[in-house]
Design goal:
It is a single chain. The protein has 189 residues and is α+β, with helices and mostly antiparallel strands. The chain has five helices and ten strands, in the order ββββαββββαβαβαα. Strands 1, 2, 3, 4, 5, 6, 7, 8, 9 and 10 form a ten-stranded mixed beta sheet that branches. It starts with 11 loop residues before the first strand and ends in a 14-residue tail after the last helix. 35% of the residues are buried.
Length: 189
Amino acid sequence: MALIGDKYLTGKFLVSTSKIDDESFRKSVIYICSHGQEGAMGFMINKKLKDFSLSDLAVPLDAQRFENLEQMFLYQGGPLEKIRGFVLHSSEYLKPGTFQVDDHVSVSSSLDILKDIAYGIGPQENLVALGYCSWEPNQLERELINNDWLVADSSNEILFHTEDELKWDRAMDETKIELNRFVFETGHA
């Protein structure tokens, strides 16, 4: 598999194909925050948690009085550490502990970012996820060879501004692959 510079698939979308057996990953879009020889890590960006909003997390912050939190949703970031929160956000907001994925997207996991969002001084664009996805070294590459995932260029438009039920379709469009012409079986010589 051809790797993209020294960042591999960092900053790209993974778009699930119908070969994925795990129901929780069906029609999922994952934003890859880190990919290298040590493995990969990312967040599902189109699986909204229906039972929670950001205001539910704000109780310990004494921020439940902020109305804008009622309209902010939490996402199922992945199957690992489902109670750990992360914020994918635009990179104009940088604080100690913020991991900058690229020029456009960063990740923070401190309570301070939730306070800043509540007070209206946080990042302009954000998506709050509980849990994350992770792959061991070479695991993601094997899944790509197996046609479990397609790779697409990411965009802040899809990440932060597209309705969840449309994100998979829009990310699939970015792959430039027509699914009706895609062959899921691979051969070995």
